[in-house]
Specification:
The termini are far apart. The chain is mainly α. The chain has a three-stranded antiparallel β-sheet. Helix 5 (81-102) packs across helix 6 and helix 6 runs antiparallel to helix 7. 59% of the residues lie in helices and 7% in strands. The longest helix is centred in the middle third of the chain and has 22 residues, at 81-102. A hairpin with a 4-residue loop joins strand 2 and strand 3 (59-60). It has helices spanning 2-21, 26-38, 61-65, 74-79, 81-102, 113-122, 136-145; strands spanning 45-48, 51-54, 59-60.
Amino acid sequence: MNMMLSVLAICLALAVVRVESAGPSENCLSCIRQVLQHEGASDSCHREYNYDACGLYHINAHLWMSNGKKGLGWRECAKDLACAEKVIKRFFATNAQKCADDLNKSLLEDLTCSDYMRLHTGGPGGCGSKDTLKNVNAINKCMENI
């Protein structure tokens, strides 16, 4: 019985490590910030799709609320790189499987940085939308130069 519990504990620990290691790389996050910055992202706020969006990741109140309400408030979190990255990483972790499914990719590890960019700009259905293709070349170029 103890051996069975030990094996189960090890399996669970490996599963947690696997989930935490999935997601965009630090280089990818840097490229996403760079591409969004060219679209006017900064530490300030602006109007985007009928929402106020702030910071280097264009975080809005809905994105902040649906991904853990990190920090003191959504505007403050969006303007703080560490807090904003916690929100965006949770968003990616929550929605990556739908993105992979929409792109007919069998593994989350097969998602590219441009896939994560499409997910971010288009929301949970963004990977299946042609409207999110506009930044693919910029992301790919950035990733090649890192």
